[in-house]
Amino acid sequence: MGAADTNPLPEGVQRVARALQEKGHPHMPRMLDDAARTAQQAADQLGIAIGQIAKSIIFRRKSDDAAVLVITSGDRRVDEKKVDAIVGKTGRADADFVKSRTGFSIGGVSPVAHATPPVTLIDRELFRFEEVWAAAGHPHGVFKLRPDDLVALTGAPVADVVVAAASGAG
pLDDT category, 169, cuts 50, 70, 90? Predict the structure, then answer.
């Protein structure tokens, strides 16, 4: 077994594991051998399609400085105009904002166990897959779930929040 098996889990991963356990989620976080800071890196290590990575993108809502979490399919790009139409005008969130609001560093933002509960939206494109994987509070940490589990774990609505795929229009 590797070093990840003998070392205690990083604090962020422990927080995610507790949140998942409290909600009765059947799959606990697992640590990858290498960092998975991008959806492609995570997909390659897990041997799955990039679209099966549920990536967590944080925006900063301008009206009240709230964190807005968009959980999107790894093969899609968030359409900020669509997000803004749902939650109000947003802007980019820098690394300090992400860390202070979520408790996680960029590259390891989990959809659950945030320091401050974010406004959350779930990309409907994730429902193309039976099984997806999300970050678990650390660039090496991931956990398995179904898209429906995201709804149950976060209480967030499913929305059309991505750039249209290969439509040619827009």
Answer: very low
